[in-house]
């Protein structure tokens, strides 16, 4: 009887040790020319098992990348030196992962993914509920799930978005011996009112028709001036009404108001008027809005605060190049010459830099059938759809076609700009497809800057700031803060980018005319929050 008990104890001990060993993994650094089958043979394991541990490897692994392999297999290959034991939490299980300190490895075995080890009783349903992912997303990251859940299987749950570290940020500095004189030129059209008896603020409050882009911009700019004055900057602000477009107001302002006596001119809003002002003065002229004509600006003293839309496409293309090595890309375009040209340019650029399959799809008889889009998608792989059109019907149909897909097919949708057409689409739909877009604004409502600005604006104007009110603040504050340093404005541009409430200003590497290149890449999350990816 004693012998029987001892035998049972040995069996339990052997089983426990065996199970414990199955949970130990280590990274293997791929050498140039190695294939998955060669690595599996070297480690004395089946190629299929190596592939199951590394489902993100499509084709052959690239040199200097890392594969997850059983620790015991690698230990049999070579005896490691100087080992470091790292306690790594995978869900609620503490796993000891042994890493060779002599190899160049990252801290975690699955550095780019949140992972989970399958336990007894786990189902797709409870995994989906626990981690907020659906079955299709799990299948893309873990193709082996087609065979079902297996005890001890390590799943990739979701990609970990790395923290964005911004470098070369401009450092605000104030020279308190520097006084600033600023001219603000806006199309307020106050000639319609009795401006000799009313202040601007009273005019704005009196007639709601004036609460437009210009007035909102003014209220934001005024708050920026107040904020800098509170910091000790002496600012003399003059506001001029440019009136109707093409009127004589502009000439009167140029010659009667001595604009050259100012340190900077902010405005006007019309591109032709901005060029007229810039040609008539030798001080910086800040163009505060976006215009399709801004690419033709030739005066070196004009500062373009809004990025060109072509740059939005370039930034998105660059992001996709960096994040899509293999996979499937579908570009959805309308039949306009401009968008077709942009789509073809993007396709050529991506084909040169990635191994992804790339197709362009356009409407037939004015629309795109759902089956045409679905047939271009692939199961168990990355499917990224890029919308280059701003046609309301086309964009709506494309998104409706993509929110309900076969189980093993997932998709992520991109756009070069979140234009007005997306404002009419349910945010829940955008969140479901992980809608990602390029923007010249990003609001972190929890940041000190946003909380402070919104609170001050609300207190002063009895309303929350609009988009243009925030732009008025950001542009005015940034330009005046840089001038308050006592340096030339163009010299501060080379010292780095700056971020204000919602806007990033980066004028570095401009050609003749200073142009802001500060944009963000923003992603919708399942909970309807937004994440800044870049």
Automatic annotation (TrEMBL):
Record domain LysM: where: 26-76, 114-157
Pfam families: LysM
CDD domains in the record: LysM
Record-given protein name: LysM peptidoglycan-binding domain-containing protein
């Amino acid at each position: 009887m004693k012998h029987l008990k001892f035998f049972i104890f040995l069996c339990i001990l052997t089983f426990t040790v065996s199970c414990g060993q199955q949970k130990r993994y280590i990274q293997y650094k791929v050498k140039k020319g190695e294939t998955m089958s060669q690595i599996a043979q070297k480690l004395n394991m089946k190629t299929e098992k190596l592939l199951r541990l590394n489902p993100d490897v499509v084709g052959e692994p690239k040199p200097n990348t890392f594969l997850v392999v059983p620790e015991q297999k690698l230990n049999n290959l070579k005896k490691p030196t100087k080992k470091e034991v790292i306690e790594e939490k995978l869900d609620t299980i503490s796993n000891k992962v042994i890493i060779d300190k002599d190899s160049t490895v990252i801290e975690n075995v699955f550095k780019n993914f949140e992972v989970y080890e399958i336990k007894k009783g786990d189902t797709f349903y409870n995994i989906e509920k626990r981690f907020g992912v659906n079955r299709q997303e799990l299948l893309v990251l873990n193709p082996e799930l087609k065979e079902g859940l297996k005890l001890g299987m390590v799943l990739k749950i979701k990609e970990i978005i790395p923290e964005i570290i911004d470098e070369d940020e401009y450092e605000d500095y104030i020279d308190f011996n520097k006084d600033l004189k600023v001219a603000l030129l806006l199309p307020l059209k106050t000639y319609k009112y009795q401006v000799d008896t009313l202040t601007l603020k009273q005019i704005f409050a009196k007639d709601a028709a004036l609460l437009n882009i210009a007035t909102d911009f003014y209220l934001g700019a005024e708050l920026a001036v107040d904020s800098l004055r509170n910091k000790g900057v002496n600012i003399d602000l003059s506001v001029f009404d440019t009136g109707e477009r093409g009127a004589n107001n502009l000439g009167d302002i140029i010659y009667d108001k001595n604009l050259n006596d100012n340190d900077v001119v902010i405005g006007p809003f019309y591109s032709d008027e901005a060029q007229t002002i810039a040609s008539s003065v030798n001080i910086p002229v800040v163009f505060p809005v976006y215009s399709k004509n801004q690419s033709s600006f030739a005066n070196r003293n004009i500062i373009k605060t809004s990025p060109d839309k072509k740059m939005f496409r370039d930034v998105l293309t660059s992001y996709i190049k960096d994040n899509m090595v293999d996979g499937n890309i579908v570009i959805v375009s309308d039949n306009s010459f401009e968008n077709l040209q942009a789509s073809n340019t993007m396709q050529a650029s991506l084909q040169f830099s990635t191994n992804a399959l790339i197709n362009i799809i356009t409407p037939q008889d004015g629309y795109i059938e759902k089956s045409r889009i679905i047939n271009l998608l692939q199961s168990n792989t990355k499917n990224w759809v890029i919308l280059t059109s701003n046609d309301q019907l086309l964009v709506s149909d494309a998104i409706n076609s993509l929110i309900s897909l076969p189980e093993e097919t997932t998709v992520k949708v991109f756009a070069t700009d979140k234009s007005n057409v997306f404002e009419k689409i349910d945010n829940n739909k955008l969140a479901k497809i992980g809608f990602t877009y390029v923007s010249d604004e990003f609001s972190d409502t929890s940041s000190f800057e946003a909380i402070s600005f919104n609170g001050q604006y609300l207190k002063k104007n009895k309303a929350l700031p609009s988009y243009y009110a925030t732009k008025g603040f950001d542009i005015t504050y940034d330009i005046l803060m840089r001038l308050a340093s006592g340096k030339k404005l163009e010299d501060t541009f080379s010292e780095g980018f700056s971020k204000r409430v919602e806007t990033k200003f980066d004028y570095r590497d401009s050609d003749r005319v200073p142009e802001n290149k500060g944009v963000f890449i923003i992603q919708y999350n399942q909970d309807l929050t937004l994440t800044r990816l870049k």
